[in-house]
Fold these 3 entries.
Entry 1:
Amino acid sequence: MNQAPVTALGSIDVVILTYNEEVHIARAIQTVSKLTRNIFVIDSYSSDQTVEIARSLGATVLQNKFVNQAKQFNWALDNAALSSNWIMRLDADEVLEPELIQEIQSKLPQLGPEVTGINLKRKHIFMGRWIKHGDRYPLVMLRIWRRGCARVEDRWMDEHVAVLHGKTVTLAGNFADWNLRSLSHFIDKHNGYATREAVELLNAKLKFLDTRSSLTSGNSSGQAALKRLIKDEIYNRIPFPLSSLGYFLYRYILRLGFLDGREGLIYHFLQGYWYRFLVGARAFELNSKIAGLSDAQEARRVLTKLTGLRIESDPQG
């Protein structure tokens, strides 16, 4: 593949987590190969051709049993032979736009040592359409950081990268979340997400896991930190039948989600109402099974049995 790595001062390692991503992995590797040869695929023992495709395109593949995204990515930080000045987190179904690639190539070598994290702007492509409204663009996320200067939050869901020190900047270019699979896959994936988020929601109330959330406007994306604050302090305190409906109406009407057409209606309804309702319903169900338990270890055991997740006292290991 044609590769044009950035200068030594701005060298970058890219880490991609995978599980059965044969439909996406070649595209992901090819988009970042314009930046670097140092691509690390951390695979959760895929049963399709993900590993073979990644290796054929020059990526280094490591395999580790999956617990959650945070644990898997931090395992990569601790075990992959990362050696560049910068690290990028990229999902297998994401692509970098040419303008962002050029911006990274030109600006990374020029950043002073006080800058330890870089926020990127994410677009969401759903059923082939860019979802521009409903507060879905831009989603500003910290995705590039100086090696040794950041970790992924200790959470079961909605985890973000947070720098340990220094300051962050935001680039102007975009990257896109562009999943090529069917609507059935979207629904199945979000059904699994709902269980993980329900565990996170219950833990915030019952404290059966030793988790440490560190997201602030100073160590990550200010947008992400503000959304987390609103979610924790307002949204999660409202009964879920009301909060999920209110959130959908806010997105679809007040934030002009209806301008995204039929694809937007499907997306905003499923992701902004159905998914949020499902999280609340799942948390309600699980809470009824553990609310009377006073022992945290017993609560984790029951949740492990009910959800199939590897619930541990410290997901960071």
Entry 2:
Amino acid sequence: MSNPIPEVLRPAVDRALRAAFGTAELDSATPLSGGLSGAGLWRIRVGGIPYVLKIEAGQHAVIDPARSYACMRIAAQACLAPRVRYAEPADGVAVIDHVTPVPLQEYPAAGHALIVELAQSARLLHQTPAFPPLADYLDGLNDMVGQFLALDVLETLATGELFARFADLRGAYRTRPGDLVSSHNDLNPGNVVYDGRRLWLVDWDAAFLADRYVDLATLANWFTRDAAGEEKLLTTYFRRSPEPQERARFEVMRLVNHVFTGVIFLATAAAERPGESLADRTLAGPSLPDLHERLRTGRFAMLEWENRVTYGKARLAAALEGLRAPKFAAALTQLAAGPQG
């Protein structure tokens, strides 16, 4: 076949193929849509077997192949991520087993089976050998917030209270050393692949040693629908009912995740259309539960730019609502009191 890989990338890709398979010959290569990292993803076939070829787009303040490849290998060794056939940070090229995805909507719906498997996966991930460190998670998010505000995507009047309250949260929350674990940090539905039998975790670009509640909060915000689902997530993960301090950390980190996701969605949308001002620069719009229900039923497509803007605003609105709520104040009181016993 004619090789569709860009000429400038072929030496590194050929090295990867020869190291993994003993040949640089491809049966086929088809571009895949990538995530927010900007990496080039290809579905390739070698000897009739499909694999994923990942080519990094370049260095980034957060995305570092040396770290993300190390995290990916650790996760693969724990059978949480697909097998890594080759990963060379210097070239920014990795070859990974291909998992044929089945829509998550087809996961058996009885009870909270999906939540249980997600919680078990998170617990296993957090028990693996320590991922390389990067930065304090909240410090890193604070830098992202500053960069987002500089973009002037939303009106200051719309976000002033939100980010003032978020600053108070940062002052009150400190990760406990025992809660630093190997963390994926972005367990959204696009990074959880169902193959018809089990779940796989993919895309380790944002992974590093972080607070365990980052993954738990992310899973809760994307996958649980009600208090019963949240309780199943926590009791499965801890193998018991969570203690008050654990529950408080979980509740606070859920608001942190809303801020993180909202900022990412809106900053990425702004980068896609530089110079374009939003028609509505407030946090007005559909509620997050409404959007999640529409997502589950296929009535809301994240591929549309306007929908990603709407979703980002809904996440920030949910964060503000949560930061105003008595539940958040009670969680801060619990954190200040410290663990019981």
Entry 3:
Amino acid sequence: MVKIIIYAGLSIPFSEAKEILDSTTDVEVIYKRPIQRGDLSQALKETPDIIGIIDGVFHQNSAVGHKEILNVLKKDVKVFGASSMGALRASELDTLGMVGIGYVYNQYASGEVDSDDAVAVMLDSDTLEPLSEPLINMKYVFENAVAKNILTSDEKDELLNIAKKTYYPKRNYAKTLSDSNLDSDKKGELIDFIRESKDIKKEDAKELLTHIKKIAKI
């Protein structure tokens, strides 16, 4: 029996995570709320084989520390990260054994993004519902809008500069577009594109869970 611990709930709801992992035979999966400082020492008492870090706290409580993750790796527990806090920590510890997966991880690992503010959101502490838009999602959408000739490169840069200057709990598409110099037609076209776009943090979370499902069968 392979035991897996997954820290999630924000980038991907537990119900959707379970649809991916819970069909795997000979696997026990324990789902936990976004990780914070001290959680991994408790997790080790449950003797996991694999830990997947997707979501974690940034400012509400102390974030999970590098030494905590390294201590888990020393116990021969496989640790994977994606989407949010997991992607950030994986980019910092990928040369020491933590495995990063997905777009957000690659953005951090390449140096394209270097601030935890890029994945931070305001959330409802009870339901874990996001109440703001993460900058990394906006970056992904605006860059795709340039590729689809909906935005020019300069317009994309203007929107991202507005979003970066907005304190993360108040960051959303409506405010960003309202503060921009885009004309009404361009805003309307972009809004339609945003509605059709993927939530890249969720897509990365799915990729991590799918990867863990595959290796858990080995």
